[in-house]
Specification:
alpha/beta, 7 strands, Endonuclease, Chain A, 5 helices
């Protein structure tokens, strides 16, 4: 079917596998030209897939580049406090809200520029980035709706 699709504005899709694939997606978000990214993330996936050392490196790199994030963060009892400490948020260039408890968010979602990244749990071990203006706008709207029902 794609051979017959002559639309000149096809989205680009890149697929990643495993923990290193997840790290590569995080590195890609550091290239955000508009200096903001919209994240939805359960912290347990971060610890399982990219690891605490890489996450600390990523936060420092993001701070150097002054890339702000609007983070909807599903916190669990396993989440290290340093990632949920409100005193760190501003100096780490992030605004954070917690979604209502009844909302299940098993995957990580990052929206930046015209890209949307999705990262699965360690069990499924995949990630992908879709490069599409329309899709990115749709997902930003989804993020904003969830942001508005989430708490500080």
């Amino acid at each position: 079917m794609s051979l017959n699709n002559v639309n000149p504005t096809k989205p680009k899709i890149r697929f990643y596998e495993g923990n290193e694939g997840h790290r590569e997606i995080y590195r890609e978000t550091l290239k955000a030209k508009n200096k903001i990214a919209y994240w939805i993330s359960p912290n347990t996936i971060l610890m399982e897939t990219i690891g605490e050392d890489f996450l600390d490196w990523y936060i420092e790199e993001r701070k150097k580049k002054k890339i702000w994030i609007k983070l909807i963060q599903k916190v669990t009892v396993e989440t290290p406090y340093k990632y949920t400490d409100p005193k760190r948020h501003e100096r780490e260039f992030k605004d954070v809200r917690n979604p209502p408890p009844e909302i299940n968010l098993p995957n990580v979602l990052a929206i930046f520029d015209n890209k949307v990244a999705v990262m699965s749990t360690r069990k499924e071990g995949f990630g992908f980035i879709i490069e599409s203006n329309d899709y990115a706008q749709t997902m930003k709207t989804f993020h904003e709706l969830l942001w508005n029902v989430s708490k500080f």
